[in-house]
């Protein structure tokens, strides 16, 4: 297995909807990802094994110096092999190159080892309002 990574890679809605369903559970949605990414994202990283999408991370931003990691997902068959950390590493590199000073992420406690230990995020105080 040879995984390749691409910043702002060409990704189809069907492929990304299927990967999200696998990674986050639930049925395959019909989200128009490409339009959403083009409108709201600094960029995104696609991981592929040959032509098959096996990983994805979205980088939203405020148009200034803050970028935000969203939707990190790796196909089950590729988990534990560094695909997720490689996705986030490339997202951080490209965010820095775009002039961002901060890369934020929110995560569930069960993902702390991934984001803090493996990816190098530090914990901060934050707030959240459920809407």
Question: What do these coordinates show?
Answer:
Helix content is 32%, strand content 28%. It has helices at residues 13-24, 33-40, 83-97, 112-118; strands at residues 3-7, 41-49, 52-61, 66-74, 102-105. Strands 1-2-3-4-5 form a 5-stranded mixed β-sheet. A hairpin with a 4-residue loop joins strand 3 (52-61) and strand 4. The chain is globular and about 35 Å long. The termini are far apart.
Indicate the percent of residues in helices.
Answer: 25-40%
Count the DSSP helices: 4
* Rough outline: globular
Which value, in Å, is the CA radius of gyration? 14 Å
Major sheet, described briefly?
5 strands, mixed
Class of secondary structure makeup:
alpha+beta
The succession of helices and strands, N to C, reads EHHEEEHEH
Number of strands: 5
Calculate the terminal CA-CA distance, rounded to whole Å: 42 Å
- Average pLDDT, rounded to a whole number, is 95
